[in-house]
Amino acid sequence: MVVNMHAGEFEPVRGVADLYVHDAGMFDTDEYGAVYVYDAERPIVIDTGTGANRESLFETLDEIGIGREELSWILPTHAHLDHAGGAGHLAERYPNAEVRVPEKGVRHLVDPGALVAGTKSAVRDQWQHYDEPAPVPEDRIAGLVGGDRIDLGDRELVVHEAPGHAPHHAFYHEPDADVVFTADAAGIYVPEVDTVRPTSPPPQFDLDQCLRDLSAIEAIDPEYLCFGHFGPREYEPSLIGEAKRAYVEWVEAVREKREALGDDEAVVEHFVEASQDVEFWNPERARADASLNSRGVLTYLDRVEEESEE
């Protein structure tokens, strides 16, 4: 199920009827940002990208045949702006679409000021790839909790809370096609190197919860995984085991480097320098990813230490 797209393009997801994946064109890296469009009886957009390239997403919906009055749902998997930054812009263009997001993310989309400030602090010069999000009107948005179902008319999505990545994070399961929209719960699957890479952003990454979230996907045993980055692939049980190992090994690598260097900025710089060997996204993104992920683990380790002292 390898999909080869460029920014602004879309393709059907092979094996899943009526499902399309759109390349949101994020960070000047092909396929990094995957937006899913389900052309169901009640059509839905799952994740939105940053909003910076929203016009191409509007064009994709037009080409699929979903009119401005027809889109029913806008469904970010969580409030991080690479997944939800376009939600308000979509709500403006599609007046009948209701926005749903995990409950703890609602306030961030209604009043995104604090989220924008936090994102700018975390991503630093990568903010150039984002756009200022439009607030979602309060009467157009509601929160989701585990077990909730999104009615698409001829099928439904089941909500599974997955707070290891962030407290406002979930993945969605469509039982009929047996596809899981993983968001970041299964890490980032990179087709070019056929591997899973962890994603551990500050400030609320939690390793133990991430492992439980991965086990929840494993328990579903789906046919397909639709990753939030780099698109869909067929499910293999070994992939979840690989993801678990990647997370554990990544946290341990940061822990060991902190013990060796004794300075958190030096730890971050070490992993940023090591990212120069990454070849499957552009160097700028590789450095930003290494900085963000290492800072997230350092924050997690601080929290674990504080809790052990209580």
Automatic annotation (TrEMBL):
Regions crossing the membrane: none
Residue ranges constituting the Metallo-beta-lactamase domain according to the UniProt record: 32-229
SUPFAM superfamilies to which the protein is assigned, alphabetical: Metallo-hydrolase/oxidoreductase
InterPro entries given in the database record: Metallo-B-lactamas, NDM-1-like, RibonucZ/Hydroxyglut_hydro, ST1585_MBL-fold
Protein name: Beta-lactamase
Species annotation: Halorubrum saccharovorum DSM 1137
